[in-house]
Amino acid sequence: MTEPPESSLDHWEEQLSWAKKSQGRWHAEMTMSQRMSVVVRIEADIEKYLLDHPNDLRARYLYARAASQRKNWDVALVRWRELVGEESDFRDEAWIELSRAHRMLGNPIQAFNSLRNVSPRRQRLRSYTNEESRVRELSNAILHTQVGDRFIAGLKAGVSRSDLGDRAKFVLETRGARDGDPGPLSRLLTGMVSMSWAQRRALRRRNSRLDTLPQSQSRFVCGMGWSGSGALFDYIVQSPMVSTPFGRIEAKLFSGRGDSVSDIAAQCEREQFVERDRLVDMILRCVAGVGTRPYMAPLKVAEGSLLSLLKDSATDVNTLVDRTLHFYHRLAGLPKEIDSRMLEDLFCDYYGGLFSGIGNRSLNFYNNIVHGHASWQLRFVPGARATVVIRDPRDQYVARQREQDSTKRMSVDRFISAQKSNNARLEQAQADSRIADRIDIVQFERLVLDEGYRDQIVSSLGIDPETVDPGEKGYKPGDSAHNVGLFKDFPNRDAIRRIEDEMSEYLYL
Predict the structure, then answer these.
(1) pLDDT given at position 280
(2) Would you kindly state where each structural domain of the chain is located, as residue ranges?
(3) Residue 231 CB-density burial (10 A; 0-12 exposed, 13-18 middle, 19+ buried)
(4) How many Cα neighbours within 13 Å face the side chain of 154?
(5) What pLDDT is stored for residue 140 in this prediction?
(6) What's the pLDDT at 82?
(7) Rounded to an integer, what is the distance from CA 182 to the centroid of its chain?
(8) By C-alpha distance, which of 386, 353, 383 is closest to 369?
(9) Do 364 and 245 touch, CB atoms closer than 8 A?
(10) Highest taxon of the source (predicted)?
């Protein structure tokens, strides 16, 4: 078998670069269809070539690059994943493109994990040559709140010393305004480094193409208050089969105890009449609780924001408002228990439409949007499943007491009372015939220590365990083994004994 001339690979690379260059606004050499036809033709030629030369890394690199240029992100994801495992000159670029594919598929956590594997030298080069896009990426990360502090820190490390770097640093400094007046951050992001009109339009299109997407399946990973649900969520989102529409953000679309429904009911009952604008505000802020967080205020000025997504993807928030107003203004004489049940039916329609419209993959995972003790709210979302992570209450108590925020700590009496109530409500939800088969229980200790049990849980969620790839720097549940048995070294032995006496049926260690 004769080797084809190197000029063939050079020619393919040159053609791909030319097609990519023509995508720019001021390059009119080729129309969109002409560009795509060139890429498709080159991709077909490379595919034939790879039949005889499957180990040619440069050809495989061009093959993956062609998929990215066609914006076929599912295919590109598979091809780039194959390349990152090979020692080659293309490895860093493969990690970067893999991160891009994850980001375009709505998986910001996997995108972040992929970028962490880029070599330090390449990271420095990217910070110098790609600075403007990094600043834009930083602003988008804050605007969309799809990523956490770790991703922001990673972007901060790449910001260099020029004027754009100073502007980006100002973004990071102003981010502290989230705890107070969000105005400076809002104005900064919209006026300096906000998304372009074309980017916002593209994002709106992705969010609005709901009728062409497969029916999404909502999967809620639920905690019971320091029970370790984050460990399960961080592990499963490392699979390309998983979409995380809100990232790791715990967007409280439901309040933890379902108080949002009763709050609105009580407000309507007290005032007898509620203005429409006030009711809309109550629904978006109290029921869809994202508005209660000061640092999320910039969402109001981003057209592709989470708040806009909540408004646009719901069946119709106005329908919910109309029905609620009608219900409380015309039917106020009904018994209170009937009032509550009918109002819940209204919210069931609302949330059913909302969650059927969010996400761009078949499996959409949400982190602690619903707490385990509020899993009865699953009946609001048709087809949704909840995976509730439970933990030995002694470790739960110790983890809570070690929380830096003192307002989240509890006395042992208050903890026992709250935890008993939460456990009772979870058991009540499990006994509800409407949702009992949609609630799965996962024990944190076994999840961390037992690999076989872990694979079993992942499979039950509809994920192939082989696709969960933490890589060298990703999260592995075994890393949390030190969080099992925390109570053994806790100095307040009286508190531990109280928990053992009062909650003996929930001790797993």
Answers:
(1) 55
(2) 1-104, 106-194, 214-245+359-509, 253-358
(3) buried
(4) 20
(5) 46
(6) 84
(7) 23
(8) 386
(9) yes
(10) Bacteria
pLDDT along the chain (509 residues), means of 10: 53 73 46 75 86 85 86 84 77 83 76 73 46 46 40 44 42 41 40 44 45 60 87 86 70 46 53 53 48 33 38 48 51 44 54 56 72 71 84 91 74 89 86 85 92 92 86 82 88 90 83
3-state secondary structure of 16: helix
Hey, what amino acid is at 440?
D
Instruction: Give the list of residues 6+ apart from residue 502 with CB closer than 8 angstroms, or none.
Output: 416, 420
Neighbour-count burial of 472, counting CB atoms closer than 10 A to its CB (0-12 exposed, 13-18 middle, 19+ buried) = exposed
For 174, residues 6+ apart whose C-beta sits below 8 A from its C-beta are: 184, 185, 188
Element spanning 310, H or E: helix 306-313
Smallest CA-to-CA distance from 224 within 177, 191, 257 is with 257
Q: DSSP label at 492?
A: -
pLDDT at 230: 86
Residue 484 carries which DSSP code? T
Two tokens at 138?
């930083």
Q: Which two tokens stand for residue 78?
A: 């598979």
CA distance 376 to 391: 20
CATH topology of domain 1-104: 1.25.40
Does residue 443 sit in helix, strand or coil? strand
What is the reported pLDDT for 204?
Answer: 47
DSSP notation for 393-430: HHHHHHHHHT-SSGGG---HHHHHHHHHHHHHHHHHHH
Alpha-carbon distance 216 to 352, whole Å? 11
Q: How far apart are CA 200 and CA 194, in angstroms?
A: 10
Give the phi and the psi of residue 33 in degrees, each rounded to 5.
-65, -40
Please enumerate in sequence order all residues whose Cβ is within 8 A of that of 484, keeping only pairs 6 or more positions apart, or say none: 395, 444, 445, 448, 449, 509
What is the spatial distance between Cα 443 and Cα 391, in angstroms, rounded to a whole number? 6
Number of Cβ within 10 Å of residue 436's Cβ equals 11
For domain 214-245+359-509, the question of CATH label 3.40.50.300 is answered with: yes
The H-or-E segment that residue 50 falls in is helix 32-52
